[in-house]
Design goal:
331 residues, mainly beta, Tachylectin-2, Chain A, 5-stranded antiparallel β-sheet, 4-stranded antiparallel β-sheet, 46% strand
Length: 331
């Protein structure tokens, strides 16, 4: 009954806010020659330049692509430009999960394995600068594989935002699972342009939608997106892959919150799911990254979502794909 209620709520949210959000189809980046990856983050640089980050790169750094758009807001085409890797880290890269670009300075990249947010130059080498992460986010206070994934920067405000995928050990006895599908309390942490911590707000996720016993499972917040009006878009991701893969599912829910206010009421923006069915659609995509695209002539704001295909993992029957997807927000 809990799962049915959650599904109905998810569908209702999509109906209520359909007038605010338009969604385009998934695009397989392989058709444009984009190399296979574990794409966990994306950031806009300038013009048609974008940065992709992969959590299993051969070296620390980032991947440059160009993206052009149709007047509708959907993607017209992509092009691979270059890998910008730090040769000294080849074979021992960090578990890079999120990326943010600071105009005129460089890229900041967060990683789960060390819970640090380091700055990289355009060529992918470290500058020696990093965000001053509070001790409460240390590696000893996160659950395995549930640390920093989300990272965003808003140039107008000069503010970074991050959070852990699931709750800290000081806030939860254990991570949320299908056996214990409670909502998760997270801490949204901001940093100023001086790289020092600013304010922190609590945020509570929705409850799980699916509760079947999984082979692979992930739940929490993999990405944030800071808008110019001080609004944050929060991506909640729920991935459940059964033992035999049939009926695997990934649910994505986007919410908006405004940390400039004293409380954080959540407003649902958009939700969708992808999956694998033995006799049916096989559009499974594990979305982990999000960034702003161009603003359209009619005032709509495009948002890009990228999926982690585990380097296009699969077998003779099915392979995951490096998907990218556009949604638009009405002004």
């Amino acid at each position: 009954m809990r799962a049915l209620t959650s599904i109905l709520a998810l569908l209702l949210a999509s109906v209520l806010y359909a007038q605010e959000v338009q969604s385009f189809k998934q695009h397989n980046m392989k058709k444009w020659g984009i190399p296979a990856g574990n794409y966990s983050g994306i950031a806009h640089i300038e013009g048609d330049r974008y940065a992709l980050i992969s959590d299993k790169q051969e070296a620390d750094g980032w991947t440059e692509v160009s993206i052009s758009f149709l007047p509708s807001g959907d993607i017209d085409r992509m092009q691979f430009i270059a890998h910008h890797y730090d040769a000294k880290t080849r074979g021992k890269a960090r578990d890079s999960e999120g990326i943010a670009y600071v105009p005129g300075e460089g890229f900041f990249v967060c990683a789960e394995d060390d819970q640090q947010i380091l700055e990289l130059s355009e060529d992918g080498t470290p500058t020696g600068r990093s965000l001053s992460v509070p001790k409460s986010f240390s590696t000893s206070n996160i659950f395995p594989n549930y640390g920093f994934e989300a990272l965003t920067y808003n140039a107008d405000q000069g503010i970074f935002w991050t959070t852990t995928e699931q709750g800290l050990k000081t806030d939860a006895a254990a991570p949320s699972t299908p056996e214990s599908p409670m909502p998760v309390l997270l801490r949204l942490q901001s940093f100023g342009s001086d790289l020092q911590p600013l304010e922190q707000f609590t945020y509570t996720t929705e409850a799980l939608v699916t509760t079947r016993k999984p082979r692979y499972f992930a739940f929490g917040v993999p990405e944030l997106l800071a808008l110019d009006d001080t609004t944050l878009i929060v991506m909640e991701r729920e991935l459940n892959i059964p033992k035999r893969y049939n009926r695997a599912r990934c649910n994505i829910r986007l919410f908006s919150v405004n940390p400039s206010k004293n409380s954080l009421p959540k407003r649902p923006l958009f939700s969708f799911s992808t999956g694998i069915r033995l006799f049916g659609k096989k559009n499974f995509a594990n979305y982990e990254g999000m960034c702003l695209g161009p603003k359209l002539a009619d005032g709509r704001q495009t948002i890009l979502l990228v999926a982690d295909s585990q380097n296009r993992a699969g077998n003779s029957l099915f392979h995951l794909k490096d998907y990218i997807k556009v949604v638009t927000l009405n002004p």
